[in-house]
Amino acid sequence: MNEQELCDGLRDVMVASSPPPSMNPNSALDAARRAHRRRRATWAGIGAGATVIAVATTVVLALSPGEGQSLQVAAPPPSASQDTKTSWPNGQTDRTARNGPRAERGNVVHDALVAALPDTLALDTRATAQQSGGSDPLPLAHTQAAFDGKHGNVEVWRYTVDVAVVRKAAPNAGTGKVYVEVLTPGNDADTDLCQAATEWWTNKGACTLNTVQGKQIGVVRDSPDDRISQVVAYRYPDGTLVVAAQNTKVSHTTLPGLGDNPMTIEQLSALALNPAFKLD
Length: 280
Fold this sequence. Notes:
- Keywords: Membrane, Transmembrane, Transmembrane helix.
- Residues 70-103 are annotated as: Disordered.
- The protein is an alpha+beta fold.
- 32% of the residues lie in helices and 23% in strands.
- It is built from 6 helices and 10 strands.
- The radius of gyration is 44 Å and the shape is globular.
- The chain starts with a helix and ends in an 8-residue tail after the last helix.
């Protein structure tokens, strides 16, 4: 401790004390030393705080963009709804194509089905039928061209057609149903024909593999599903799957049924093998 520091310490003690301390030199010297230590501790704390401020300022300056620069902020990840949103093809707003070439192919399937019906059958030309247990009428015919997904870069389409049929010999005796569905190449339907047949509308009927016209088909002769009674499935070498089905009645309507299937199982099998349903 030099002379100036000793004087500063003595002055602090004299100002802070009331009454003034005695002039005992040893006591005064001890008090001066304590005051000096307090002053050094205070300046040390101030120095440490200044260091922290300096470091923080350096970090802020390092992170702050300079003149003419912009601070780059990472964009938030896309939301789950953006990631999972389906992109419909051809400007469609949903799965169904209502115009354009895909819709036209659905019409091709419809026309091919009507043309392939046995001579014993005719279309039920009524547009709708009364719904059983409900007030809304149900359409008797249906045609849909639906985007089914993608296999790599290949679009997969599902063309589904059903028509109501009557027997020409007794057009008022009852109405049945005939269905055709075509899945284009790249579809994920089971390659096992019996699996494909029993999974169609999840009918789960007993299936056998038959050979017709030298081609193997999966055949469900007695489906437990109320909507369909028989199903036949055939797959082309390129993966195109054709399913033909029928029912003795128009389910969920008040229309009387035929009492029997519209076609024989042989006729239904020939329908599934009709080359007109090979689209893509």
